[in-house]
Design brief:
Blueprint (H helix, E strand, L loop, with lengths): L2 H11 L29 H11 L2 H7 L1 E4 L16 H9 L5 E3 L6 H16 L8 E4 L24 H7 L2 H18 L3 E2 L23 H16 L11 E7 L18 E3 L2 H9 L2 H5 L4 E4 L3 E3 L2 E2 L2 E2 L9 H11 L5 E2 L11 H4 L23 H11 L4 E2 L5 H8 L5 H17 L10 H7 L3 H13 L2 E5 L11 E5 L3 H6 L3 E3 L7 E7 L27 H10 L4 E6 L15 E5 L4 H9 L16 H6 L28
Parallel strand pairs: 1-2, 1-12, 2-3, 3-4, 4-5, 5-7, 6-8, 7-11, 14-15, 14-16, 16-17, 17-18
Antiparallel strand pairs: 9-10, 13-18
Keywords: Glycosidase, Hydrolase, Signal
Pfam family, one: Glyco_hydro_3
Protein name: beta-glucosidase
């Protein structure tokens, strides 16, 4: 029934004595104002009214956080539109109303596509709007399945850059801008921040953390939640719900092997180190993050309430979720599992090889529950405390678990209430649509990018500046490696092809890595292994060539703590970046901008020192080459 016709019917049925609220949406198409459709009603009343109209099948769908598919890709990679038919089936046949989007298109196109999803949702039996989530979109680092970039959003440093500045106000400001950009395109949930304590230097997820100090991680992650949700008292109707992750101990994995992979499914901590990893989440929880995502890994070693932790991943672990998170920490929000914990891990997942590499079809992360069937995994997760299962799109195992008496409908209702409440808090039942033209104006605006550019510059760390090499006056001849010549010319330098013809050299490089597991889907994409520069590395050869003739400035992009021992003697100046454009680095070189960052972790001297440290403890082991907090502050040069 159209809105006007429905409103007229409503007035007639009440004899004209009352009228529906402005903008009333007849979501269940019955011509009456149901309590859950009334924007004037308290949220609890709206939730209970809607819950009472739902079937068990509809409730089961609410416990799934699916993926908005694109043509030919059920996991949403590639393409520039959603698969409308497949999306309609997820919404109306499987009753799923929470989805991650991986679409990478212009802001106006993304807004239009998300409006299509909401139109399909509105046509359902109860008209429950879709909650649309995303992995981070505002940073330089992009890893398939974990983050993305290049889609029109303002570009800021990676999270470590904010940690280098250590300024909660800057984090809040970034998050507030990101909030506005997400809501402009119809995204309502950020699958971030990572409040993981980064204690193992080889870990591939290091760059998305706030570093290795539990108190600093807590403070900055809390500011992130506050900025995205538009306050510290829970998400506001114009806010973006955050899902802080990964509860808890994810950053302590031996050798840095990541929990997305079968070979990285275990982490060992002590009681004292476990307490530090928990401490890193404190302010995110105090700021009432709408969601928490448990870690993939099986935590070994510490005790909870005096009992050893069951050797299953956190998504199946009642001690970690119901006991520690909901009990000791009094958390009342949504618990969303990480992706694919209920899927099987076949041979191509456990031990892929060149003939049988792991593809998306063989991704499963049911650590500790590998031999259980899917019904048992869902039941175990629900009983542990999970409200939604990430990356799942089939409610049948949940219904089977209820039918077998493994899970009660009362327990299902608890999770449905949390999912529905968040939708009401976000204002989605009253208006889930966005202005596509406004999205084009708001997202990636000149003003927002100017602020992002300023943070790219400020977040750099100056570690060495021998013989006052910086600042370098424009007009000098420069030899480049890993830097766009056009950016150097724009900064006022004369670019030459031979370092012997130069006045100085600028080399951009990054923390070394190895691809130790090339046939694993995530292992093939993650930076693992060594952190040290070696003579055979092409970037080291470039530094060697340049430093033989001219003062050489080396800027190292650090997604993990680099070992600088091999290149330090050849570098007159050392700069650390955590996501910065060539223009941003060149502005620091010229003194137009000042590097204000401090290392948010220590830098080891050798791989032997890395191997000697404990993966679960921050900045431990032998004395570092540079301690956490290292950094030189220069006075900014006057502008022309």
């Amino acid at each position: 029934m159209h809105r006007i016709a429905a409103a007229a019917f409503f007035a007639l049925t009440l004899g004209g004595a009352a009228s529906p609220p402005k903008g009333w949406r007849d979501l269940n198409h019955n011509g009456r104002l149901d309590r859950y459709e009334d924007s004037r009603a308290p949220i609890n009343a709206r939730v209970e009214n809607l819950l009472g109209q739902m079937t068990l099948t509809e409730k089961a769908g609410m416990l799934l956080h699916g993926t908005l598919p694109t043509p030919g890709s059920p996991i949403g990679f590639g393409g520039n539109i959603y698969d409308a038919d497949a999306t309609a089936k997820l919404l109306n046949d499987r009753h799923i109303s929470s989805f991650i989007t991986r679409l990478v298109v212009s802001p106006a196109e993304l807004a239009a596509q998300n409006n299509v999803v909401q139109k399909l949702a509105e046509a359902g039996r109860l008209g429950i709007p879709a909650t649309i989530s995303t992995d981070p979109r505002h940073h330089f680092q992009a890893t398939l399945g974990a983050s993305t970039t290049g889609d029109g959003f303002s570009l800021w440093p990676d999270t470590l850059g904010f940690a280098a500045l250590g300024d909660a106000g800057t984090v809040r400001r970034f998050a507030d801008i990101a909030r506005q950009e997400y809501r402009a395109v119809g995204i309502h949930m950020a699958l971030s921040p990572q409040a993981d304590l980064a204690t193992e230097p080889r870990w591939p997820r290091f760059a998305a953390t706030f570093g290795s100090d539990p108190a600093e991680v807590s403070r900055l992650a809390g500011a992130y939640v506050e900025g995205f949700q538009h306050g510290r008292s829970g998400v506001k109707p114009d806010g973006v719900a955050t899902v802080v992750k990964h509860w808890v101990g994810y950053g302590a994995e031996p050798e840095g092997f990541d929990g997305h992979n079968y070979y990285g499914r275990n982490a060992t901590l002590s009681d004292s180190s476990f307490a530090q990893h928990i401490r890193a989440f404190d302010d995110s929880l105090a700021a009432r993050s709408s969601g928490v995502m448990p870690t993939y890994v099986i935590v070994h070693g510490p005790k909870i309430a005096g009992q050893p932790i069951e050797p299953v991943a956190a998504g199946f672990n009642k001690q970690m979720l119901t006991g520690l998170l909901r009990g000791q920490k009094q958390y009342r929000g949504l618990i969303v599992s990480d992706w694919s914990i209920t899927r099987d891990c076949p041979q191509a997942c456990m031990a892929p090889d060149a003939a049988n590499p792991q593809t998306p079809a063989s991704i499963g992360t049911p650590w500790g529950m590998e031999t259980a069937d899917k019904t048992t995994r869902f039941a175990k997760g629900i009983e542990a405390g999970i409200d939604q299962f990430g990356g799942a799109d089939d409610p049948a195992p949940i219904l089977d678990a209820v039918a077998k008496g493994l899970v009660s409908e009362k327990r299902i209702d608890e999770s449905v209430r949390r999912v529905l409440r968040l939708k009401f808090e976000l204002g989605l039942f009253d208006n889930p649509y966005v202005d596509e033209a406004a999205a084009a104006r708001i997202v990636g605006s000149r003003e927002a990018q100017a602020e992002g550019d300023a943070v790219q510059r400020a977040s750099q760390v100056l570690l060495r500046n021998d013989k006052a090499t910086l600042p370098v006056a424009p007009g000098k001849r420069i030899w480049l490696h890993g830097v766009d010549a056009a950016a150097a010319r724009a900064a006022g330098f004369v670019v030459v092809d031979d370092p012997q013809q130069a006045d100085f050299a600028l080399v951009r490089t990054a923390t070394p890595f190895e691809t130790l597991h090339p046939y694993h889907f995530f292992g093939a994409r993650q930076h693992e292994g060594r952190l040290d520069f070696r003579a055979a590395d092409k970037d080291v050869q470039a530094i060697t060539r340049a430093s033989a003739h001219v003062p050489t400035i080396v800027a190292v992009e650090m997604d993990r703590p680099a070992i600088l021992t091999a290149i330090e003697p050849m570098a007159r100046t050392l700069i650390v970046t955590f996501g910065a454009s060539d223009a941003a680095v060149l502005d620091v070189v010229t003194g137009r901008a000042t590097a204000q960052g401090r290392l948010p972790f220590s830098l080891p001297r050798s791989m032997a020192d890395v191997e000697a440290q404990s993966p679960d403890l921050p900045d431990d082991g032998p004395p570092p080459a540079y301690p956490r907090g290292a950094g030189i502050l220069l006075k900014a040069a006057s502008r022309d």
